[in-house]
Amino acid sequence: xxxxxxxxxxxxxxxxxxxxxxxxxxxxxxxxxxxxxxxxxxxxxxxxxxxxxxxxxxxxxxxxxxxxxxxxxxxxxxxxxxxxxxxxxxxxxxxxxxxxx
Length: 101
Description:
4-stranded mixed β-sheet, disordered C terminus
């Protein structure tokens, strides 16, 4: 099990089952920088829920400050980064046009 998944398991204990499953699915796809870009369909497959449920969960995770979403040039899908622990922010939008630093 990857370190990102272990961190996500611990950091999402307080979330609902769908939000937790989506966060863990994203963590399972994270690279060494903590960035992941699975499609909504892939997340739905890993989380065992519908694509619409994934979309709702992504919105909620962003609103809770648990997920940062980036649009990166050259990648058709969004790039996700889980926000855990002391680095958690309270930003409401979570979507930026930065180069996914």
